[in-house]
Structures are given as structure tokens and as C-alpha cells.
Specification:
The structure holds 3 protein chains of 3 kinds. By secondary structure, chain A is of the alpha+beta class. Chain A is about 20% helix and about 35% strand. The chains are: A alpha+beta, B alpha+beta, C alpha+beta. Chains in contact: A-B, A-C, B-C.
Chain lengths: ~200, ~1000, ~90
């Protein structure tokens, strides 16, 4: 029997689903999808009536206050993303030091690690909104969905959370997170929807 | 390849520099870019395009738009073959291949046209009256006969090779229709800065402007049209969507539309969908859908060559195709005269003009003279000749004398009906306008206004006026500052005099009301005589207004004749309530990407690829694909595989993914209290670091779900749910918290996706785990006893959770690691278990082992069982309230004779048990009254080497040892089984605690 | 249909799950009679017109909402969090 490798290497949520390269219409890049990996993610739920003190604790530690509206607040290596009333996702660019941070915050909130629970990617390119219009049942016109806004919604019958980052050279930039187990179904929709615009898939830098 | 004998030398909007070849019924023809199939057929002199539904009468092209009832053709071939497409809206493309329908063996010679001779038998209600008896004849004789005779087109019968998609749009102002009213509205709204979507079902914008010779501002209307389109295209927030039909109006400003992205191409362009179904959210919408012309009901009005006058004009002016060289006009109003004028201008001859109005207007007389046409004022057409191609019409003049006039085209004009369908989609009733003699929009749905002809404002100047005004208003409603109102441009004069003729009476022959369904005026009379007078009964009895055209050309005539028959007015007789869709919509456009394997999302466990490598066969479990079993070479069937997997677990150790179980993180000061209220058993005393089996009920007292919940901290629990109920349980818990007990401090979030989880089961489970769990964690039997649940680390510091719980009855653990390590965990366990012959097992083996142990699962938690039924009544706490407690105590739910949960074994051990078999007393008849319950789960137990079953039988627990029949008529099963304890293996639990 | 979630904004009805009338209050199971619980579990009015009903924003913020909807026209008069209503009632 062949020897089975036993290295405990983490596997990306996109492994076996999406890989760097191009697909769809030739000679055009209407959409660029950057696969995100290696981030830390946790749900924070404030104790009843204690959202403010939680926000202060996060601000004291990371310099970002928790948004009261559906928005993302970014600072340095962390983002605080509204995820429901009194509920946030805290995202760290890297896993290092994330667990100690969560342990600290557990004094102020119900903390649940979700670092491996989502597949995430960033979308940009001139046809980004046209692409998203094929699945997102929300008005993403710049006048209706501003920079820093987030929404928990569904795309192609899959739960997603998306938010808008600062515009890039080709206009709006979005990040989207989908449940890890549904990344394959999501990608099936995405590739079908993006093909006509021409899509480049990249790993994050 | 033939020429185009009826194509005008010049004029029209077809591109003569781009000839296209196409075929109809196997014959090749040529047309031009910009043609429809109908216009190209007419240009080639093809008049006969189909056979009618019931009588197989020859039919030609009646209209030039979506209302077409006759010219339905099959388009394309092979998998792309599409039946019942309207030739009048099919955009011509190179190589288009169309075929007529409903004829055999050929269009010109159709054997079933004999139905026309049998027509006295085929009147309204014919099917209901004729095919009633004997009942047995229906399936074998009547239905196949009717289906062969009466079908229209043939479906492809193959999988659609094209892709469809859905899309969502948002705007301030949606303009429906790109004619003069819609263009003016879009322009006014767009100039005000509104986000505008302008949809038109046509491939070219302009509406009737394309079909008429009109002037705006003293110049040809085409110039205004071009300038308007140029300006609209320059406005960044205006989106123009041709080939897009807004087919439905729904609640809260939502409109359904279908964009035919690739229908005008031989096949969709690479990476493009064939069609795109849009859901458009509009703050305001303007319906500018124009109007549909009405035919006149007279004998022979279906002969190919009889055409709506407005359509004839469209073919001449827009397509440069002459629908006939010798035309007769039969009109009830002023509008038809434009057709005579335009045909004459294009070089056709006007043989006669029959104006049903008795007054003799000198201007009309002068025009008839100028056109060289005989004028029959106060006359009527009462017959046609020619069969497959109109050759003459019989005209009855005002004095009653009849004259035959040779012609190859009869243009018919009876006024127009506003295309108000969408105003009716939210139950709005159209209102009768006695002055206009048509229905106009009644109460409008919120956010919708109606402009131009769709509102019964039929003149060009009214269309321009309405559009400009309503476009501004809509923008202002959206909070924008409307652009200044430009003066409405002047147009050339037009008159709209009309005295509609609902039918020509007193002549012989079939006069069609509904062409598509072959409903004649006589059928409407019959319906009236037989009492089917309300308009909805009329429709159902005669089929008037059904099928692809939904009565666009027939509803009003039918209503008018019913009114005449019953001595009522048209509004007293009824109205038509239109429902979506306005025109047929392909299912593909509604489904979009979601068909076949993409019908719904599929969830894959983090260990999925590993399972696939191991050769797993997967099974759908709710949205999940789970490994069902892992066949190995030499195993003949799944049974052999499953037996091997079960034996391996019971003898040594097995490995199974359980990541799909729902996992809910429950925290907060009142977390334990919350669990007390949602589970039937107690939770406050559960020590930290321990797991407990929990059962929850619905409020009606029946079991909802079960699972193991562990206490990770004083105020921190991890609940697991069954795979199938994870979402439902989460929703239920949120309900309990937010709606019932918001005062509790309990904070929940699903962590199902975060953890990969595996079950390691069998006598060698601990030894296997020892090779994976980091060494500082003591997992000995003493330190980590049954139901222990604690955080550990694996792989040198990776956080993990270990639970000593068992579904199989063996010594077993569940190990959870962050999902990214799921794949690595399986490989590590395989390596650690290699010395013991560790065996991956799937849901089948899992099922066998739980049946051997008498554990309930989905088959028993079926929404009809109580905790007591399942033998779990002892878990029900009497010290506290919990969801379902009171209702579970209802007398009928606690009576002794309820079916309750027990085991079953065949008396003859060689016999196979079947799930679903019903229990009947031995010697009793297999009838409902003797039904005592049924088998819920069965398995072949490799341990016992015979089949075992679990089931629900009346007073089961009190009947251990008794024998009953397990009766399974579906699979011819009828065997004797013995009622036994549901625990077949290790009833003392020695293995579990080992 | 669109429902304006007080937390997430206007959303397609597809994101929500309907439960039923919002006003029946669950009796205390230890104190209530079987009749009272039966009424709570099974008996509902079916008004033609204004109806206060529970909707769960399962594809969004997971909040249970009380939606006041006209069953004739589907016009929605108000949407509030069920939790807020209960807190208000207790105050």
C-alpha cells in the first residue's frame, strides 16, 4: 500500500474548484477575480446592551470601531464587518496572532472562529457590476451602494456576504464571501455568468 | 433559390446589402437583414404558412407582431427545434430553417383537413360531449387520437444545448415599449437624470413609427426617431434594451422581462446565453406598449391573404414587402384608409374599399377615386374564395347586393385595442370606453402610468405628449428635478373615426373569432345557448383566448358576440383579466443557470476530495453529497462493500466523515436555560467537558430533531443537528430566542462550515487517535470517558475538538478540526490507523450500524412520531417547560396503541426485509383496517448475518416476541416477522465503554 | 415581493421565510391549559386585509420580523424586529 502523506497543511477553500488563469471571451478581461486565502475570520456577538463596550474594546485593540450599520470598517490588518444586529465579522489579513486576539475579545463578546468557514474573493474590472447583476438581487449602482457598504444576501440560491471597497482603476471593487461547502456551486454560477465578459482569475499577492 | 417577387425595389428598413438565405418547409428563399420570417415569406410570395389547430384549415399571416395567431412555425432543427414560434416576430438570420406545423403529409395537402368537413361535430364542447364514455377508452383511444390530431408543434425532445441566465436590474423609471410614446418618456426621464431602462420587444426601436409614413416637426418621423435614439444613447444612465419583452408586472414595482440575446442568431454567440430572464425593480414605470389591431369576424376571414390592415402597412413601409398586388380594404374606421394609401403608393392596386360606415364622407370618396378603388360605403365583406390563397372576396353593398371582387389581399381594419395587459396583472380591471369603443386601462397598479395608444390615446401627437409628460412626472416622483418640458412637436394630421363591426351576419361559412383555437361565431352562440355566458365560462367551454396568443386578436370579438347574444353591453358581459406572461416565455429564461446538476446548490464536505480519491460513491443528503460507500475491486455489489465496511468497524476501526452535521455555537449567560427550553431533557447539570444526547420537539409535541450537544464552557455549548435539519433547527432556535424569549442572553451562530469532523469508530479507535492527537492530551478511557467532549490539538498545535460519542455502538470518537485541515485530518487518521486496517465507511454502513444499535434517524424522525413513540419518553423532563411539552401530553399522543418503535427480524432468517412494508396480523386481510404500522428502516446485519428492521407498530413495546406479517404489495413481499428489541448488537453497551 | 428589513434594507421576498400570524403569544407551558396551548399552536385568523405576520430573514441578518401586510394588495405598512416588539411590550 502506498504511503499516505500526513503533513498537516491547510487546504484553501478554493482548492480543486478555482485556479489562476483565464476563462470566457477571448481577448477581453471584463472581470478580475482574486482568490483570497489565509485570512482570519470570527463572528463577534455582543452581550445584550453591551455593543458599545465591545466596540470600544475592539477599537482600543485594533483602532477600528464596530459599524452600527451594514458597513465594513477597515484599519491596518483588520476589518470589522457588520453581519447583523449586534453581530460582526472580524477579519484579519493573516492568521498569526488571530487566536490570541479572539481569546482577548471573548471577555466582551461571544466569539466564534470562522476562519475556515468561508471562501472569499475580490472582484474588479469594468464589467464587475454587469456580472454581479446576474446574481445579486440588490441595487449595486454607485449611488445606491456606496464604498464601505456591506450586505448579507443570496446569489444563485447561495448565501453570501459582499461589500464594496474603495474604487479601483476600473471602477467599483467588491469582495464576496460564500460558505465553504458551497464554493463549488458558487463557482459554477460565477464562471457561467462571467464568461461573456472574459475573466482572469488570480491568486492574492 | 427563388427571387423575391413581392419585394419592393426600394424603401423599408431592411438592409438590401445584406441578403440572407433561409428555408421554409425545405425550400430555399432569400430575404434581407432586418426582415422577420413573416416579411421574408411575404416578399417571396409565400402565403400559406400553417394549418389550423382543429379543422386544419390553411392559414396565412394575419399580423406583423406578437399577437399572431396563425403563422406559428417550428424553428431550427435537432435539439434547438422550437415549436409554435410566431413568424411575425422571428428575426431572419442566415440559414434560418423553419417548418410549418399541424399538417400531414404536407402543408398543401393535409389529410386531416377532412376535419373541416366534419366540423358540425367539432363545435365548442366537442371533446366534453364526445369523449365521455366509456371511461376506459380515454387512455387507450381518445387521448392518443386527440393528441395526434390536435397538437401544434413538436418539442425537440432533446436537452436544450443553450445556456440561459437570470439578471436583476434597478431603475428609477422603466419604460415599456419603444414607440413614440415610450421614446418621448425615456427622453424626458433621462434628461432629468433618472436611471431609465427602456425595453422593447422588437429588435428595432420605433414602434409604429417604423410602419407608418408620418411626419414630426414637418420632417419624416424617421429623423425624429434617429435624433431621439442618438440622444438616449448619449445619456449614461439610460439603458436601451431591444429584443426584451416585459412580460409581467408583480408586487412592489417588480417587472419580469425576457431578453432574447441570441434568438436572432443561428446559435448564441460564444459565452452568450440564448435568453436572459430579467427581474427589473422600478420605482416608476411607464407602459407605452401601443395597441393591437382588431380583425373583423366574417365568413372566410381566415383565408391566407386576409390580413390586418395595420400589418399590411407594416410589411409595405417597414419591410418593403408587398403583401398583395390586388388589394381590397375592409375597414370600420379611418385608420384602414392609410393602408390603402400606402399600398397604392408602393405600387399595389386597390381594387375596392369597403367602409362599413354608412355615411358617405366626400373626402373618403375623393381618396377612393384618387386610388382608383371602388368604394362600398356601408358595405361588408361576407365571403372569401381561394382556399389556400385568396383569389376574390364577396362584397355586400349598402343595398344588400353582392359583388365578387378579385384580389390577393384583403386588409381588415376594425380599430385598435390598447396593449394594456400589464395594467391587469395585479387584478386591475380594464374599463370600457364607449367613445373609443375599446377597453382602456382601469385602476392602475402603484407606480405605473400609461402613455399613448396603450392608454387609448391613439394619435401620434397624443403619444408624444403623454410620453414627455409622464416621463418628467416619473423622474420627479423619483426625487429628481425634471428637465424643462419642451413643446410637443407637431405632427401631420390624422383622424380616428371608427364604428367597429364585431361581425358580419347573414352569410354562410365559417367566421372565425379565435383563429388559433378555431373558435367561430357559431361556437360563441352555442356557448350562449348552453348557458356558458360569463366570460370565464365562455373561455373554458370554447377555448377562446387560450394558447400562445392568449386571445390578443379574439377576446374582444368574442365578448362582443356574447354581448349581442345575451342582449347586454360589452362591459356588462365582462372583461378579460390578463395574467402574466404577456407573450410566451421559455422555461429556460426563468430557470437560468439552475438546471440539471445546477438545479440547486450542492454542498461538499471539506473531506470530499479525499473521499473521492478513496473511490467513494456519493449520495445526496439534503443539499450535501455524502460518501455512501467505498467500493473496492472484486466487490460485486454495494451490499458486499457495506458488509465489509461494517465488519471492519466492529472488528477493528473505521473512518467516516460527519462534517455535514449542523453545528451551532451557543453562548451567553442563559445558554443552559435556553437549552432547557428547547430540548426535552435537562442541561443545567451537564458538566463542562461533557456531551449529551438531546431531543427537541415541535410545539405540537412531535419530534423535530435530535443530536449531541456539548458543554464547552460554563456559558458555551456546541449543538449538533442532523444533516437534513440544520437550517430548520437554526431558524427554530432564532425564533425561540427572538420571538419567544428575547430577554435571555443567548447568542448563536452556525459554525457548520468552520469544522471538518470525522467519526473514528471501532475497538481500535483510541489507538488510531493516539497517533493523531498531540501527546500532551490524555485520551485514555479514564481521562477521556464516554461522552467526554474537550478541546485538544492535533498535528502539533492545530486546535481541534474531540468528542467521545458513538452512533455505531462501538468505541467511537468524533474529531473536529478547522475545515482547512479536514483533508489532512483524514490522511493523518488513515496513516495512524493503517496498522489496524482502518477502513473508510460511508452513510450506508453508518446506517447499518445504527439500525443494529436501534438508534433512530431520519426515517423515524419523520414528523409523525413523538418521543414516547420512539422509546425516548423517559428523557422528557417533568420539572420544566419546553417546546412541545404540553401538546406531547395530549391523550391521543400517549395512548398505548399508538405505533411505537421496536425491532423486527424475519422468522425465516433467509428472507429479506423491506422498508415501507406494513404490519398486518397473521391471518388477517391486508386492508387498511388491519394496518398496524410499518417498517421504517432495514439493513442486512453482517454481525447477525440476516436482515433486521426497525419500525413502528401499534403498542410495539408490549408485543415483543409476537409475530406479524410484513406486507409489501409494491414489491410482492409478504413475510412473517418477529417483534423484538430494537437493539440487535451489544445491548449492554460493553463495546461503547471499552 | 420586496420586504424592507429594518436592518438590511429592501430585499427580495426570496430571502425570507414566512411563518404566520405574529400576535398569538405562547402561553407558559407549565401553567397553561391544553386548550390555551391548542389555540396558540393551531388556531389562526385569516383576515382579508391588514395582517401582522412573522417573517424570518434567513438569507440576510437572521432576524425575525413582524411585517404588517395587506393580504389583498400585498402592500406592506410596516416592518419591525420581533425582538423589539417584545421588548416594547414588556416596557
Amino acid at each position: 500500500m502506498a504511503e499516505i502523506a500526513t503533513s498537516w497543511r491547510p487546504r484553501s477553500a478554493w482548492a480543486g474548484i478555482a485556479q489562476p488563469g483565464s476563462f470566457g471571451a477571448k481577448g477581453k478581461t471584463g472581470v478580475v477575480a482574486t482568490l483570497l486565502d489565509g485570512f482570519g475570520l470570527a463572528t463577534l456577538i455582543a452581550e445584550p446592551g453591551a455593543a458599545t463596550s465591545l466596540s470600544r474594546a475592539v477599537e482600543g485593540r485594533l483602532g477600528i470601531a464596530l459599524p452600527e450599520m451594514p458597513r465594513i470598517v477597515s484599519g491596518g490588518a483588520h476589518d470589522a464587518i457588520w453581519a447583523g444586529p449586534d453581530q460582526w465579522l472580524l477579519r484579519a489579513a493573516l492568521r498569526d496572532g488571530f487566536q490570541p486576539l479572539l481569546d482577548e475579545l471573548a471577555a466582551h463578546a461571544a466569539v466564534s472562529d470562522q476562519s475556515d468557514a468561508r471562501a472569499a474573493f475580490r472582484l474588479q474590472g469594468p464589467r464587475t457590476r454587469d456580472l454581479l447583476a446576474k446574481g445579486v438581487m440588490l441595487d449595486l449602482h454607485p449611488s445606491a451602494f456606496g464604498v464601505g457598504e456591506t450586505a448579507v444576501t443570496s446569489v444563485a440560491y447561495l448565501g453570501v456576504q459582499l461589500w464594496r471597497l474603495a474604487d479601483g482603476p476600473d471602477g467599483p471593487v467588491f469582495e464576496i464571501m460564500v460558505a465553504r461547502s458551497m464554493a463549488g456551486s458558487f463557482w459554477s454560477w460565477f464562471t457561467a455568468a462571467a464568461a461573456e465578459f472574459g475573466c482572469r482569475v488570480a491568486d492574492q499577492d | 433559390m427563388s427571387g423575391q417577387p413581392f419585394r419592393l425595389a426600394s424603401g423599408g428598413l431592411v438592409d438590401r446589402s445584406r441578403p440572407l438565405s433561409f428555408s421554409f418547409d425545405g425550400r430555399s428563399y432569400r430575404g434581407f437583414a432586418g426582415d422577420t420570417l413573416a416579411s421574408a415569406l411575404l416578399a417571396n410570395g409565400v402565403r400559406l404558412v400553417g394549418r389550423s389547430f382543429k379543422y386544419h384549415r390553411p392559414r396565412g399571416i394575419l399580423s406583423a407582431g406578437p399577437e399572431e395567431p396563425n403563422a406559428l412555425v417550428e424553428l431550427r432543427s435537432g435539439a434547438r427545434r422550437e415549436p409554435n414560434t410566431r413568424a411575425t416576430v422571428v428575426e431572419l438570420f442566415e440559414g434560418l430553417d423553419a417548418a410549418s406545423q399541424n399538417r400531414w403529409p404536407s402543408l398543401a395537402f393535409d389529410l386531416l383537413s377532412i376535419n373541416g368537413l366534419l366540423s358540425p361535430a367539432l363545435v365548442a364542447g366537442f371533446y366534453y360531449k364526445t369523449f365521455m364514455w366509456p371511461a376506459a377508452f380515454w387512455e387507450k383511444l381518445y387521448e392518443p387520437l386527440i393528441r395526434r390530431a390536435a397538437g401544434l408543434g413538436r418539442a425537440a425532445g432533446l436537452e436544450d444545448p443553450d445556456h440561459y441566465e437570470k439578471a436583476f436590474a434597478f431603475c428609477d423609471v422603466l419604460v415599456i415599449g419603444g414607440g413614440p410614446a415610450g421614446l418621448a418618456a425615456a427622453l424626458a426621464a433621462g434628461r432629468s437624470g433618472a436611471r431609465v431602462i427602456l425595453c422593447d420587444e422588437d429588435f428595432r426601436l420605433g414602434g409604429r413609427l417604423l410602419a407608418e409614413r408620418r411626419e414630426i416637426d414637418g420632417k419624416p418621423a424617421a429623423e425624429w426617431l434617429a435624433a431621439t435614439l442618438t440622444e438616449l444613447e448619449s445619456l449614461p444612465e439610460v439603458r436601451i434594451m431591444p429584443r426584451t419583452t416585459v412580460f409581467g408586472l408583480y408586487d412592489h414595482g417588480i417587472y419580469g422581462a425576457v431578453e432574447r440575446v441570441g434568438d436572432h442568431l443561428p446559435e448564441p454567440a460564444p459565452h452568450q446565453p440564448r435568453q436572459r430572464g430579467w427581474r427589473i425593480h422600478a420605482k416608476r414605470a411607464i407602459l407605452a406598449a401601443g395597441a393591437l389591431e382588431r380583425p373583423i369576424v366574417f365568413p372566410g376571414n381566415d383565408t391566407p391573404g386576409v390580413m390586418l390592415a395595420g400589418a399590411a402597412r407594416t410589411y409595405v413601409n417597414r419591410y418593403g414587402a408587398l403583401p398583395g398586388r390586388e388589394a381590397v380594404l375592409f375597414t370600420a374606421g379611418d385608420d384602414g384608409w392609410a393602408t390603402a394609401r400606402d399600398i397604392a403608393a408602393a405600387g399595389g392596386r386597390i381594387a375596392a374599399i369597403v367602409d362599413a360606415r354608412g355615411d358617405s364622407d366626400p373626402a373618403r370618396k375623393a381618396l377612393a377615386d384618387k386610388l382608383g378603388a371602388r368604394l362600398f360605403a356601408g358595405g361588408a365583406v361576407e365571403g372569401t374564395r381561394g382556399g389556400r390563397h385568396l383569389s376574390s372576396v364577396t362584397i355586400r353593398d349598402a343595398s344588400g347586393a353582392t359583388t365578387a371582387v378579385d384580389c390577393d389581399l384583403l386588409a381588415v381594419s376594425n380599430g385598435w385595442n390598447p396593449t394594456l395587459h400589464l395594467t391587469s396583472h395585479q387584478n386591475g380591471k380594464p374599463a370600457w370606453d364607449d367613445g373609443l369603443q375599446c377597453f382602456v386601462p382601469g385602476t392602475l397598479p402603484a407606480g405605473l402610468s400609461v402613455a399613448g395608444s396603450a392608454a387609448g390615446r391613439f394619435t401620434l401627437v397624443q403619444a408624444l405628449e403623454d410620453g414627455a409628460r409622464l416621463g418628467r412626472e416619473a423622474a420627479a416622483d423619483g426625487g429628481l428635478t425634471p428637465a424643462p418640458l419642451d413643446p410637443v412637436p407637431a405632427t401631420d394630421p390624422e383622424t380616428t373615426g371608427l364604428q367597429p363591426v364585431w361581425r358580419v351576419k347573414g352569410a354562410k361559412g365559417k367566421a372565425f373569432v379565435d383563429y388559433q383555437n378555431d373558435v367561430t361565431d357559431k361556437d360563441v352562440e352555442l356557448a350562449a345557448r348552453e348557458g356558458f355566458r360569463p366570460v370565464e365560462h365562455l373561455k373554458r367551454y370554447t377555448t377562446l383566448g387560450m394558447a400562445t396568443d392568449q386571445g390578443k386578436t379574439s377576446n374582444l370579438s368574442g365578448l362582443a358576440i356574447m354581448a349581442e347574444q345575451t342582449g347586454r353591453t360589452i362591459p356588462q358581459t365582462g372583461t378579460t383579466t390578463f395574467r402574466p406572461p404577456y407573450t410566451p416565455v421559455a422555461i429556460g429564461a426563468l430557470a437560468g443557470h439552475h438546471r440539471g446538476k445546477q438545479f440547486r446548490p450542492v454542498r461538499l464536505a471539506p473531506t470530499h476530495d479525499w473521499s473521492r480519491e478513496q473511490g467513494a460513491v456519493f449520495v445526496e443528503a439534503g443539499p450535501w453529497l455524502r460518501a455512501q460507500y467505498y467500493p473496492r475491486p472484486g466487490e460485486n455489489d454495494w451490499q458486499a462493500t457495506v458488509d465489509r465496511e461494517v465488519k471492519a468497524v466492529r472488528a477493528s476501526v473505521g473512518l467516516c466523515d460527519v462534517s455535514t452535521l449542523g453545528k451551532i455555537d451557543i453562548q451567553g449567560a442563559d445558554a443552559a436555560e435556553f437549552l432547557e427550553r428547547v430540548y426535552i431533557n435537562g442541561w443545567k447539570a451537564l458538566p463542562v467537558g461533557k456531551a449529551r444526547y438531546g431531543l427537541m420537539l415541535r410545539e405540537d409535541g412531535f419530534v423535530m430533531d435530535d443530536g449531541t450537544t456539548s458543554r464547552l464552557g460554563e456559558h458555551h455549548f456546541l449543538m449538533t443537528t442532523t444533516t437534513a435539519n440544520a437550517g430548520k433547527v437554526m431558524q427554530h432556535l432564532e425564533f425561540c430566542h427572538q420571538v419567544l424569549w428575547p430577554e435571555l442572553d443567548v447568542r448563536m451562530v452556525s459554525v457548520s462550515e468552520q469544522w471538518a469532523q470525522a467519526s473514528i469508530a471501532g475497538p481500535k479507535a483510541r489507538e488510531t487517535l493516539r497517533g493523531v492527537v498531540d501527546h500532551e492530551h490524555d485520551i485514555s478511557n479514564e481521562a477521556f470517558p464516554y461522552l467526554a467532549a474537550r478541546a485538544v490539538t492535533v498535528g502539533g498545535g492545530i486546535p481541534a475538538r474531540l468528542f467521545r460519542i458513538s452512533f455505531s455502538g462501538e468505541l467511537a470518537y468524533e474529531l473536529a478540526v478547522p475545515a482547512a485541515y479536514g483533508d489532512a485530518m483524514m490522511r493523518a487518521l488513515m496513516q495512524a490507523g493503517q496498522p489496524f486496517g482502518i477502513t473508510p465507511y460511508g452513510t450506508e454502513a453508518l446506517g447499518v450500524m445504527r439500525i443494529e444499535k436501534g438508534h433512530v434517524a431520519g426515517n423515524e424522525l419523520n414528523g409523525q412520531t413523538t418521543a414516547r413513540d420512539l422509546g425516548l419518553g423517559k428523557m422528557m423532563s417533568s420539572k420544566k417547560d419546553y417546546i412541545g411539552r404540553l401538546m406531547a401530553g395530549r391523550p391521543a399522543l400517549i395512548e398505548r396503541d399508538r405505533p411505537s418503535f421496536v425491532g423486527f427480524k424475519p422468522v425465516d432468517p433467509s428472507q429479506r426485509l423491506r422498508a415501507g412494508a406494513h404490519f398486518i396480523g397473521i391471518g388477517k386481510a391486508a386492508v387498511m383496517e388491519n394496518d398496524e404500522g410499518y417498517m421504517t428502516s432495514v439493513a442486512h446485519s453482517p454481525h447477525l448475518n440476516h436482515w433486521i428492521g426497525l419500525g413502528l407498530i401499534r403498542n410495539g413495546a408490549g408485543r415483543i416476541g409476537e409475530r406479524v406479517r410484513a406486507y409489501d404489495p409494491v414489491r410482492n413481499g409478504d413475510i412473517v416477522v418477529e417483534i423484538c428489541s430494537p437493539v440487535f448488537v451489544d445491548p449492554e453497551g460493553d463495546r461503547l465503554h471499552g | 415581493m420586496r420586504i424592507t428589513c429594518p436592518h438590511c434594507g429592501a430585499r427580495d421576498a426570496q430571502e425570507f421565510t414566512y411563518l404566520g400570524a405574529a400576535d398569538p403569544q405562547r402561553p407558559d407551558g407549565m401553567a397553561a391549559t391544553e386548550a390555551a396551548m391548542t389555540e396558540y399552536v393551531y388556531l389562526r385568523d385569516n383576515p382579508a386585509g391588514s395582517h401582522r405576520e412573522l417573517w424570518y430573514h434567513g438569507a440576510g441578518c437572521h432576524v425575525w420580523l413582524v411585517v404588517t401586510r395587506d393580504t389583498h394588495t400585498h402592500a406592506i405598512a410596516s416592518v419591525e424586529a420581533a425582538r423589539a416588539r417584545k421588548a416594547g411590550a414588556a416596557a
